[in-house]
Amino acid sequence: MRIAADFALLSPTELATDVVVEVHGERITAIEHGRAGACDSAVELLVPGFANVHGHAFHRALRGRASLGADFWDWRSSMLAVAEILDPDRYRDLATLVYRELLLGGYTTVGEFHYLHHTRDGSPYRDPNAMGVALVEAARAAGCRYTLIDAAYLHQAPDHGEWAPTEGVLRRFADATVDAYLARTEELSEGATHRVQLAGHSLRTCTPSELVTIAQAARRGWHLHLAEQHLEVEIVEAALGARPVALLEHAGLLGPELVAVHANAATAEELGTLARHDVVLCACPSTEEDLGDGPSPAANFHGLGGRLAIGSDEHVLADGLVEASRLEAHARLASRRRRGLDVAALWTALTAHHALGWPEAGRIAPGWLADLVAIDLHDVSLAGVTPEAIIQITTPARVVRVWVGGTEIVHDAAVERRELAPRLDHLIRTIWKEIP
Ligand SMILES: [Zn+2]
């Protein structure tokens, strides 16, 4: 297959004009400059597919329901009500449509931070990984590359410094012990387009020593919700005697294999510690806005030499370019200056497939996976904008076509957006009707 592009972003710092990208099987085999020879497709701007490094598919059901609560903790109650009623079949149906929406937003690799493991009473399904398997099937049906980030949720958040066993819907999340968690996740298989990573849900639900066990077992890196809310940090500090970053550093858990999700409640000193240890920080700006987490410190972290990734988390937004532009906006609003994240830093963060265990994705170069996104530049909102700078412009729905592993997965995004809308709308409304 040969794709001709007026412009192609070969790497975060290299925009080429008049390029032909040659693909055999799932890989890119050659880049030709100039437009000689016949081509199968012609596009305006070709960019590497985006990596959605952090998300929870079922949170999509809460989009547009901000009136459900005054703060993060009220929102969390609504989120738990949705979690209460999902079973593997329903979750597969929902996730398939959600992942399809993410593909339409340019995300060719989806990372699912998965903690909804068990039946309503907390006992395991006959296949203890039934929910995770349903999610993998959803990704396969949607056509995205996928990483199931299976998260350990071992305790109820400590109250006044005391740990307690999980109660109510939280029992659906919990494995009995860290060893039970590892035994369960050991049974998860990988495939040509899906891989498995481990995670601790947070320091509210896993102790540092349990996280050490998880990190030691992780072959493709591991993830952790780090410091999204100040109250969350205070709960951890009251229970464990120190803030999350200090606890992780003391336990020897900071390193390049850790993807820390959210650092809105981290101090400047803590950001420096994370950057020094080469931790990847995954920012989720649209969710951090929606939940009132405060601005992302991504630009400060980048300035300290830290590596960034991007996630859409609760999927209040499903558009990689807009998500990245929000990260830039956070930087400017927080600093009251115009210098935030430059264009190359934003593209680097949006294509951080390595954080999902796919280091061979994210570039348009021979040998790399042919995960590609074609972008429409002929919109009045982009008139006068240089092609690589579109990542700074908040104009949605510019993705036209999407390839994953050399296969065209989305042929006409505008048409599919209209087709997908009633299906996802119906499913989400059905879910809410069932919530008491
Ligand atoms: Zn999350």
TrEMBL record:
It comes from the Bacteria. Transmembrane segments: none annotated. Pfam families: Amidohydro_1. InterPro entries: Amidohydro-rel (IPR006680), Metal-dep_hydrolase_composite (IPR011059), Metal_Hydrolase (IPR032466), Metallo-dep_hydrolases (IPR051607). The keyword Nucleotide-binding does not apply. Residues 46-407 form the Amidohydrolase-related domain. SUPFAM superfamilies: Composite domain of metallo-dependent hydrolases (SSF51338), Metallo-dependent hydrolases (SSF51556). Its cofactor is Zn(2+). One of its GO terms (molecular function) is deaminase activity. Keywords: Hydrolase, Metal-binding, Zinc. One of its GO terms (cellular component) is cytosol. This is Amidohydrolase. It comes from Acidimicrobium ferrooxidans (strain DSM 10331 / JCM 15462 / NBRC 103882 / ICP). The lineage of its organism: Bacteria, Bacillati, Actinomycetota, Acidimicrobiia, Acidimicrobiales.
